[in-house]
Design the sequence.
């Protein structure tokens, strides 16, 4: 779904983003009682919290994480670095994933079942699956194309609502100029921003992970 700003000379397509209930449904879709669910829950929370481009998310490395300060270092376009704080639920979800990620050769945080870095296409596929699951609770999602960039747009609207400062949105997303960020201020924002109220931070879906004997033995050998 898109929102448009109309004038006599322009018909500007505004960015698509998720409403509060829709976002929470997507974040709740992964099953935290499974290893993949714990990974996906962490990916989604970090992606939304930090407003990451899909390449920034899949390229995030273990050394880029500072859990004591609940922050991550992001290498963005033009090799511009930014450090971003994590909402507490995002930090909890990320810590849970790192606890069961195990010792793998690749430095990337998010890996597939073979211990290889998850690709941007792999994340997009998983997001579509979780969006379909979330649509059972929020039918409006079935009419929206929930892409990784939609999560980034959603983060931008959350930050704008919380701060009222477009400059902070620009810094958060790693934009080179404010011109790129101004798209979030077009049109009458009242209805849209009110819909995002109380979305920071979204709550974390709880679950109990039961590791297999093979996983316990693997962690024991690599610890």
Sequence:
């Amino acid at each position: 779904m898109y929102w448009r700003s109309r004038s006599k000379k322009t018909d500007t397509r505004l960015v698509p983003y998720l409403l509060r209930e829709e976002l929470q449904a997507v974040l709740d879709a992964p099953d935290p009682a499974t290893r993949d669910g714990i990974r996906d829950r962490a990916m989604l929370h970090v992606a939304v919290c930090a407003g990451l481009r899909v390449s920034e998310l899949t390229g995030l490395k273990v050394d880029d994480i500072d859990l004591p300060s609940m922050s991550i270092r992001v290498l963005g376009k033009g090799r511009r670095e930014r450090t971003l704080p994590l909402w507490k639920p995002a930090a909890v979800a990320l810590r849970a994933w790192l606890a069961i990620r195990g010792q793998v050769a690749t430095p990337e945080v998010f890996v597939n079942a073979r211990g290889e870095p998850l690709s941007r296409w792999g994340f997009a596929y998983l997001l579509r699956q979780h969006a379909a699951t979330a649509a059972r609770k929020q039918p409006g999602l079935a009419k929206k194309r929930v892409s990784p960039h939609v999560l980034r747009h959603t983060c931008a609207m959350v930050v704008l609502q919380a701060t009222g400062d477009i400059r902070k949105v620009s810094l958060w997303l790693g934009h080179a100029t404010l011109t790129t960020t101004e798209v979030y201020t077009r049109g009458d924002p009242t209805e849209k921003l009110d819909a995002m109220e109380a979305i920071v931070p979204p709550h974390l879906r709880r679950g109990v992970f039961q590791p297999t004997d093979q996983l316990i033995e693997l962690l024991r050998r690599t610890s």
The CA atoms of residues 17 and 153 lie 6 Å apart.
